[in-house]
Design brief:
Shape: globular
Number of helices: 11
Strand order of the largest sheet: 6-7-8-3-9-10-14-13
Largest sheet: 8 strands, mixed
Structural class: alpha/beta
Distance between the termini: 44 Å
Strand content: 15-25%
Radius of gyration: 21 Å
Number of strands: 14
Length: about 325
């Protein structure tokens, strides 16, 4: 039995850069976090905040060049994923750690049947013969709620709707019973009805299979309904992390409060005016030496321009990287 108090995944000081003709972009800057067995960790932030790059760095899925993982450690089952050979890492991807990408139409191969693509990791990682792999592939399609699974194994990706293609991607990611599933904005391209179905499916699968999940999204409404704990990212850094209820009840970082103000809500039958976050996320051409949010922050002071604040413990698992975080409690 795994120790429920020991993280199944632990990330320390992760740094990733992209080297381009115009210079380096510091996309991930010292990210650290842990994931407990069975936990669903939400990762939120605007486009360009470093969410996807961070999670793709864990499994070295980024093309090199231009990407370069400069520093850090990713501990999983007693080994550092960043130090593994490519062959060893390939054996781990898809078997112990699954990944669901944002757009299933570009992730699924259009020239192979869905059955072939589900059976591939089963034959590669579990060494199942064709008949056993086909039986398991049918079970997986049934698990993710695709009707007439036996027949649909012979269909191609274009014969499925967007929501069904995403279910196929989830089936592929779950094929080898991974201990960790990373889902990179898997419902972004879907309409709200299908999105709700996928979220309910993931809740059910997580409960039945007991896997830990990292769910990347820009939608705080999604996170509120499924996550146990949340990381808020900005400028390639974690600026706040907290249990989901605490984050929504008492957000402490100005960026988190700004994100929450953009979420549609109705109180007492009255709709609130939607807010916007002025300005644009930074393009970091050097490692941050000051708060990356200061130019957009209504609470910024002169100190913010001279210090890049570290994550500070505010109690009960709530950590904030802000010199003025105490203003949230006033």
């Amino acid at each position: 039995m795994p120790d429920p108090t020991r993280p199944i995944l632990s990330v320390s000081g992760l740094e990733t850069r992209f080297h381009t003709r115009k210079g380096s972009v510091h996309a991930v800057n010292g990210v650290s976090f842990s994931l407990a067995p069975g936990e669903l960790l939400g990762v939120v932030g605007e486009s360009g905040s470093g969410k996807s790059v961070t999670m793709m760095s864990l499994l070295r899925l980024l093309p090199t060049p231009p990407a370069d993982i400069m520093a850090g450690r990713v501990d999983f089952e007693g080994q550092d994923l960043l130090s593994l050979t490519e062959d060893d890492l390939r054996k781990l991807r898809g078997s112990k750690i699954g990944f669901v990408f944002q757009d299933p139409m570009t992730s699924l191969n259009p020239v192979f049947t869905v059955g072939h693509q589900i059976m591939e990791p089963l034959r590669e990682h579990l060494k199942l013969d064709k008949r056993a792999a086909q039986k398991r592939a049918q079970e997986l399609l049934e698990l993710v709620g695709i009707p007439d699974a036996e027949r649909r194994l012979r269909d191609y990706p274009h014969q499925f709707s967007g929501g069904m293609r995403q279910r196929v991607m989830i089936a592929i990611a779950l094929a080898c019973d991974p201990k960790v599933l990373i889902a990179d904005e898997p419902t972004t391209a879907l309409d709200v009805t299908i999105q709700a179905q996928i979220l309910e499916l993931m809740k059910d699968l997580r409960q039945r299979l007991g896997m830990a999940v990292i769910w990347i999204t820009h939608d705080l409404g999604v996170i509120a309904g499924i996550a146990d704990r949340v990381l808020v990212m900005y400028g390639g850094q974690v600026v706040e992390q907290a249990p989901v209820k605490d984050l929504f009840r008492t957000p402490k970082h100005p960026y988190t409060r700004a994100l929450l103000s953009t979420v549609p809500r109705i109180n007492g039958g009255r709709a609130h005016r939607l807010e916007v976050i002025a300005g644009q996320p930074p393009i970091l051409k050097s490692a941050p030496v000051a708060c990356s949010f200061r130019d957009r922050c209504p609470s910024a002071t002169a100190l913010c321009a001279g210090t890049n604040p570290p994550l500070t413990d505010h109690g009960k698992g709530h950590f904030v990287a802000c010199l003025n975080a105490e203003m949230a409690d006033v």
